[in-house]
Design brief:
heterotrimer, A alpha/beta (337), B alpha+beta (443), C alpha/beta (261), B: 443 residues, D-Amino Acid Oxidase, Chain A, domain 2, 3 domains, 6-stranded mixed β-sheet, elongated, C: 261 residues, alpha/beta, Rossmann fold, 9-stranded mixed β-sheet, two-stranded antiparallel ribbon, 27% helix, 30% strand, globular, binds flavin-adenine dinucleotide, binds adenosine monophosphate
Chain lengths: 337, 443, 261
Amino acid sequence: MPGEVDTDEYEDVWVFIEQHESEAAKVSWELLQKGRELADEKGERLVALVMGEDVSHLAEEAIERGADEVLVVEDPIFEPYLPGPYGEQFSELVEERKPDIVLIGGSHTGRDFAGRVAVPTYAGLTADCTELEIEADTHLLLAKRPTFGGDAMATIKCVEHRPQMATVRPGVFDAAEPDPDREGTTTEVEAAVGEENVHSRVLERVVGDITDITDAEVIVAGGFGTEGEFGPIEELADLLGGEVAATREAVEEGWIEAARQVGQTGKTVKPDLYVAAGISGAIQHLEGMNDSQTIVAINDDPNAPIFDDADYGIVGDLFEVLPALTDAIRDEQEGTA
Amino acid sequence: MTERPNFDDYFDAIVVGAGLAGSAAALTMAQQDLEVLLIERGNYPGAKNVFGGTMYTPRIRELTGEGFEDAPVERHLGTKRFGLLSTEDETAMSIKPGQWQESPHNDTYTVLRGNFDEWFADQAIEAGATLITETTVTDLVREGESIVGVETDRPDGTIHAPMVVLAEGGNSLVSEAADLKETDPPEKVAIGVKEVRKYDRETIEERFGLGEDDGAAYHYFGEGACGGGVGGGFIYTNKRTLAIGVAYTISDAIEDDRKPDELLSDFKEHPAVAPLVKGGRVVEYSAKSIPEGGASSVPELAHDGAVIIGDAASLLLNNGIHLEGTNMAVESGYLAGNAIVEAIHAGRTDAAALQSYPEELESSYVMENLQNYDWFSDFAHDEKQFLFQQLPKALTEAELEFFKQDYEPKETHAKRAKNMLLRAAGGWTGAAKKAWKYRKLLS
Amino acid sequence: MSREWNIVVCVKQVPDADDVSIDPDTGTLNRSDAEAVLNKPDYNAVETALRLKEAVGGTVTAVTMGPPFAKAVLEAAVGLGADDGILLTDRAFGGSDTWPTSLALAASAEELDGDVVICGEESTDSSTGQVPPGIAAHNDWSQLTYVEELEPRPENDELVATRDIEGGHEEVAASLPVVVAVGFGMNEPRVAGLHRKIFSETEFEPEEYSASDLGIEESVGLAASPTSVGGMDTADPVEREREMVDSVDELVDKLQSEGAI
Ligand SMILES: Cc1cc2nc3c(=O)[nH]c(=O)nc-3n(C[C@H](O)[C@H](O)[C@H](O)COP(=O)(O)OP(=O)(O)OC[C@H]3O[C@@H](n4cnc5c(N)ncnc54)[C@H](O)[C@@H]3O)c2cc1C
Ligand SMILES: Cc1cc2nc3c(=O)[nH]c(=O)nc-3n(C[C@H](O)[C@H](O)[C@H](O)COP(=O)(O)OP(=O)(O)OC[C@H]3O[C@@H](n4cnc5c(N)ncnc54)[C@H](O)[C@@H]3O)c2cc1C
Ligand SMILES: Nc1ncnc2c1ncn2[C@@H]1O[C@H](COP(=O)(O)O)[C@@H](O)[C@H]1O
């Protein structure tokens, strides 16, 4: 078992570029933007790690979006993602190149990967951070995350072990914009993984829903109270040019696709207007939308906790209130037009 | 360990409901080495139990001994106030006896049932009882006439035991379904609606003139408290919350065109009440039925293999001045528990062997009180116009007259005020009749 | 080769979110006196374990690492149908983060000769989801996280899972021994039978393992944990108007004056 390490030997900020079928997950670009800030503050380099089968174009994009160096490991064994080979390769790279900080998306793939690799590297791993900072005097990573119940923020540090790792949910940070003029180096790395590292095989894979609600300026969200009828939600969202979102409960029921789930285990959103209809206001949901500018809650239960976290609340049946609201807004818009 | 365990006839007694009555019975029996299974439908005892309120604790203190020091009480009751409300005015009387401020504080405390009931059930568990939560008893199991167990809503959910104690509270579905009890008519049932609001501690202490540990119970009657109905409003002070509610008979609730929650919000807006409850934040809202049929509604208490205790047995006193049920629930649980211990030791569970429970209860303050006030419910309904509407109004008018500042001498005002009251009461003969009728209220 | 499986299910005790009280003195939420209950996602784990056992035969053993009162969650698991329960309790475990926690669970899975370890998606108190992959990594076993469906293939010593992944799902076959983290809500957990529940709360006693029983006393606890809590701030609660409006028109007015629409 690895013991203590010489922390001085470790430097640079790494970002794991999560990709599926050669397409990068947007959270990776969000991490590049945050990673750039952290690297600049430490005066170190930002390194992107790209693994997969046909991914060299992602290396270029990573440089455009802020990486100083991109490590590219191309091999069929890395397509699609499997924890065994990915984990083994990553451990090799860490041992060889000693990164100080590693940022990974808090997606299912990212968390599956992070949890696996933190053990052999003996890394300090903090899940679902919402703020990342560098401590002024020590240059340690301060990984902040809401704790149980959400009314406290814990700061997690990793003092004696390296790398310092953190996962961040999609939508917490803004994505880094590409700058075609940026320069950086691409380093091809030989795959160091064999069949002995493969414990599982993918039999079938169906992906395709790439809905992104994290940039929406208006979100109308429905919960269990919709009983599966999202019509009124969609109408209001359409009128306001916004996106439809949902609670986990609604996703579980199969009423709406998982990509539209807001919350602790879904997306983090911060639109100007968030309308929550038929949503009770569980803490796990609030965590994903509490930074919205204005929150409107519609619920037929006056005791629903959501009202405590809303700017404006209406007690009533969403099937009456939402259409009335849609009509009223439409009237206003036509009146002023 | 994969075999199906079977606990049929493992327990001496099954108690239905871990409210105050149920836990008192379980504790009493467990202390005397019976095996007791306490079944509660809530997540934990007290999870959803609703009351005002103030808890009256002499028997609890005795049963729990030193443990009582850790009982989660909010404040001891130091102040009681009665206010008669017309739609706009209040006439009130407040009492704050020095003796109540000192231990044992007249054994009266404000509590939060969620905390208190859980603690009380814990005392029974520590004494050896087994508590199963999130389990609802759905029916009784009989063999011939005898009750020999219960059915629950869980898989593999029937369990047998020699004795069943029905302590399910006022909404006594199991007892009623098993024909151990009749359903109360609407004029014998009250509905209580209540909200708990949270404030700063200082706000509560300032508004009600309290110290750190003492509390107040404010009771209100009259049209301003709950419309034309028989009933009243209340405010109880906890440490950081106020319990604010109204309770009135279901038959009146049906007549009044306001819903119970609207009635509560009118009560909160009454000019005498509003300053006490303004601000804060609702942390709980609840509604619950209160049996108030009095002695005449108390069913047969002992059956072959079963007893009924607490609110399930209508052991509750609500006469306008007293709203007491907790003490009687505990007392009945205690007496029933002792009767069961005796019967089990004698190897019997038939109704005759359990008679010491109804007998002891009959000679205790519980039945004494209920019988004493039995007339009240009918009386209040007969007299409700006078009591809850005319009297508060007449009183205010008389007060206004009595204290009026103008160019007439005081004596003139006093005379007029007296006449006004007399007229409201139906002249001298009417007043004499009323005085005779009402004397019992204060006896 | 087909045989019965040793199924280990990891269950964690967490403070009951429904039972947080208001601290009478400070007015803040008080979780310390909240009752310890079984982590809700772990009900899905227990259900999965019981169904696996029903399909392939074998035993289900619930394991928890925690203070002595964590026994309550083993009771819950046994009440639901687990055959046995093991409590990993030892002062030495105190202060463990996910690294040593997953080590202890991995070591006990090894000790129990586990074929399949089932975990919940995440715990409602620390919500990292790191423990299940951590267990797999410590033992170098295969892992399946965010599982929505599970199909045992005992003839191949394999478990086939449908996993929820970004924008879709995938079907993965993993060889035993394997660690599975099931998606929260993936199944409808059963209700404990009455007699089984009574049994679990009256007669069942878990076996206890200490750190040295597992031979890991040097590698657990605060000192072996790479992360530490560097501080706790009260999150600045987002100031909300908390205004109840009575009509849709009033709402539209408010939103317009804020420029939200
Ligand atoms: C580990 C873990 C992670 C989780 N992650 C997430 C997450 O990322 N996102 C998430 O959302 N949840 C998450 N949850 C689940 C969360 O705890 C809640 O269960 C969920 O948010 C509740 O969804 P809901 O509000 O739609 O349903 P409910 O809580 O059932 O609420 C439905 C509401 O609709 C109201 N209603 C019903 N009918 C009407 C009507 N006609 N008109 C108006 N109102 C009506 C009801 O009064 C009620 O308040 C997670 C839970 C766990 C344990
Ligand atoms: C608004 C209001 C204000 C009051 N104010 C006061 C006051 O200030 N002072 C006072 O002394 N009294 C007051 N009372 C009366 C007092 O609350 C009751 O008399 C007392 O709670 C009765 O106790 P109990 O144990 O009989 O019933 P409960 O306290 O009602 O307990 C019954 C228990 O049984 C459980 N249960 C019910 N059915 C089943 C089932 N089928 N299976 C399993 N479990 C079941 C319930 O969940 C509950 O825990 C008030 C009542 C109300 C409604
Ligand atoms: N102390 C523990 N004891 C047993 N199982 C645990 C423990 N901590 C975590 N787990 C398991 O790991 C899952 C994920 O937890 P976490 O990584 O803490 O979010 C839980 O649902 C449990 O199945």
